[in-house]
Amino acid sequence: MLAVAAAWAQDSATLTGTAMDSSGASVAGAKILLYFDDGAEPLARAFSGENGVFLLPGLRPGTYRLTVEAGGFQKKTVRGIRLETGTERSVGALTLAVGSVTESVEVTAPASAVQTGNAEVANTVSNEQIRRLPVLDRSPISLIRTQAGVTLGRGATTVNGMRVSFTNVTLDGVNIQDNTVRNSTLDFLPNLLLLDQVAEMTVATSNTGSAAGLGAAQVTLTTPSGGNAFHGSAIWYNRNNAYAANPWFNNRDRLGRAFLNQNQAGGSLGGAIVPNRLFFYANYEAFLLRQQTSVNRTILTGTARQGDFVYRGAGGAVQQVNLLRLRGLAIDPFVRGVLDRVPGPENINNFRVGDSSDTLVRNTGGYSFLAQNNRTRYNATGKLDYVHSERNHISGSYLWNSDLLDRVDGNTHNDYSRVPKTRNDNQTNFTAVTWRWNPRPSVTNELRGGFNFAPVNFVTTEDLGTFLVGGYTFSNPVNQLMLPETRMTRTFNYQDNLSWTRGRHTVSLGFQGQSVNTISRADNGIRPNWTIGFAPGNPMALSAADLPGIGQADLAAANTLLATLGGFVVTGTQKFNAEDSRSGFTQGTPRKVDYRYHNWAGYLQDQWRVNRRLTLQMGLRYEYWTRLEERNGLSLLPVIPAGQSPIDTLLTNSTLDFAGSMAGRPWYNKDLNNFAPNFGFAFDPTGKGKTSIRGGYSVHFVNDQLLVALDNNVISTNDGLQQTVMLRNQTARVGSGL
Predict the structure, then answer these.
(1) CB atoms inside a 10 Å sphere around CB 408
(2) What is the pLDDT of residue 547?
(3) CA distance 432 to 191
(4) Which residues fall within 8 angstroms of residue 374, CB to CB, at 6 or more apart?
(5) What is the helix (H) or strand (E) element at residue 200, kind and residue range?
(6) Beta-carbon contacts of residue 146 (< 8 Å; ≥ 6 apart)
(7) How far is CA 212 from CA 7, 217, 270, 512, in A?
(8) Which of 36, 114, 399, 715 could form a disulfide with 430 if both were Cys (CB 3.0 to 4.6 A apart)?
(9) If phi over 0 gives left and psi between -120 and 50 gives alpha, with beta otherwise, what is residue 160?
């Protein structure tokens, strides 16, 4: 149970303060009791140390009241103490008046306080603040960029100019990032959280303690909890195109206004099942987006469909030549079938693509139309909090998200379908459980575990057939840009964190672990893929002599049109994969990988309150990243002969052989020297809690595309597990059989 104890900085809150008398002297041994603001039974207990300082760690975010009792002094109560996710809140110096403990004094905590207790630079955005901001999609993640030091960099959100993968994002202490492809860690979170699933969000941009791992910056989110009073909400939002103007290009292309109707509806309810003991929170929300997006495709003119090629010859004179008759050819029967799926020339409504213009219709033009671009999401949240006593608190949360998304973007939709043939169909599951144990006032232990199952599935309704053909002079009606692919990333987190307060020191120590398992399957490239064109020396190819006065660009376009209508292919490729380590290459086998890696970390940290103005933070974290493994044994690396260096091996015709633990040849050596020191200070120059000067130095070990980088170097680029075979300089026609 010795572990890296800064899980308080990851999810829970910490409350500190100082008990003193009217002369400014410390009051040692004062009893500190913490309650819900409307609660009747204490949730946590502590005693002030010899310097009057007390500390209550591992608290869930919320609003509390605090009582301070000491012999010979009046009881003091502080109400309205707001604790925020992953932060430390100080109530400052609490002056006790001389008198009987049966007498009491009540004060209200200030709405905000300057952080004077540690070196961390962080800010918390509450659910109330989130609700007041204009967030059209009700996603709290976009609000990360509202914090100081967070910017939208060169295509992705970054913190303090660091790489996008250097930030760790957790919900209730469990990582919720895409831990396979980490190049958009702050812009895409597979869980697709909505506002009422998040109670608070804390963004720590620098000087995080040794307990915060897996990132140099931390984004910490917590789910809402119920309280003694029942609170609920019901929401319905609607956006539509009733009063929207039509875009200029839609007007020009004679397209009507794109349809838009977005409805978001749901509700939440939280309260007590057993007052002061058992609390619940539940939320459900639907996001129903029905919309259209304008897309533009390239189609043939009426003359080009018959083989007539229009170009400008010498002096700019318009020339028209039937390329099929010129070469004594007929339209290839396979291509004719493809052309039957291409909209006719009467659908040309723009010249933003193709080679035609307003003054001359040549061979290709643009066909823009409105395509469906819908999204349907359902989010559900459930949470239970059980306060057995001030010594034992247990909480658990579960989140489920369903996301069905039409892929009409340029990377996946390049056909003429008004209902996209490719879509994402994902269902994400998240669970977190926490047990906070307070065996005595000076010791708090938190045990936490959870998982996040985040799939990324691309499904298609396209009939791909037995082979693919591309490179036409018009947009292909067969969508080949996104072939079936599935990927499931399972992230598991477990940690045990201990905090011990003694005198002026608060010692934190603990253990934290994260395991990532990614299983993916991709069909990309396993079918024969033929490219339209003429091989060098093909007698059917056109030359400048065949088309008098033609320029080089038009000559290339003429050959592409002739090759398209004639069905000529110049190259063919097909990718072959290994089914297992003994199968050799097998036809039609998708690329399958099963990756796993772990991170184990331990830390020790001392927060030393030198005096009421100065706090020093010193810590050390140790991390061990296990070696990435492909669990099926499908990985290859060069064999390094005895006495030969790796560089000399790579400069020769080296041999590749299976690698990994199954083959007794790990991909790389263990890295056992990941020691991460952490130093920081917080200084209150006035002693009034209104000003803080902070500084620090820390080292962090992060996941900088670990899986993708090694996949590229061990599997994807090493021939032997997958092989692309290419046939060059072909002269066959598609309709004649390939």
Answers:
(1) 22
(2) 95
(3) 14
(4) 289, 290, 291, 404, 405, 406
(5) strand 200-206
(6) 125, 133
(7) 7, 9, 30, 9
(8) 399
(9) left
pLDDT tens-digit series, residues 131-174: 777 777 788 888 888 888 898 867 788 899 899 899 999 999 99
Q: Own/partner pairs for 37-42, CB < 8 Å, 24+ apart?
A: 37/62, 37/63, 37/64, 37/65, 37/79, 37/80, 37/81, 38/227, 38/228, 38/229, 39/65, 39/228, 39/276, 40/275, 40/276, 41/276, 41/387, 41/390, 42/390
Residue spans of the chain under pLDDT 70:
1-11, 100-104, 107-113, 127, 130, 153, 738
The pTM score is 0.85
Q: Mind listing the pLDDT tens digit for each residue in 419-477?
A: 999 999 999 999 999 999 988 888 889 999 999 999 999 999 988 888 999 999 999 99
Contact between 4 and 601 under an 8 Å Cβ cutoff? The reply is yes
**Which residues are within 8 A (CB) of 92 and not within 5 positions of it... i.e. 6 or more apart?**
17, 18, 113, 688, 689
Separation between Cα atoms, residue 118 and residue 26, nearest integer Å? 21
DSSP 627: P
Q: Are strands 364-372 and 278-300 parallel, antiparallel or unpaired?
A: antiparallel
Position 1 scores a pLDDT of 27
Amino acid (one-letter) located at 121:
V
730 vs 535: CA distance, rounded Å: 6
Where do the H-state alpha helices sit in 626-679? 646-650
For residue 688 the two structure tokens come to 């009034």
Q: Nearest Cα to 45, choosing from 507, 393, 538? A: 393
Contact indicator for 630, 711 with CB cutoff of 8 Å: no
Q: Say how many C-beta atoms besides its own lie within 10 A of residue 485's C-beta.
A: 17
The pLDDT of residue 16 is: 85
pLDDT of residue 147: 87
Contacts of 244 (CB under 8 A, 6+ apart): 257, 260
Beta bridge partners of 264: 237, 287
**Amino acid letter, residue 225:** S
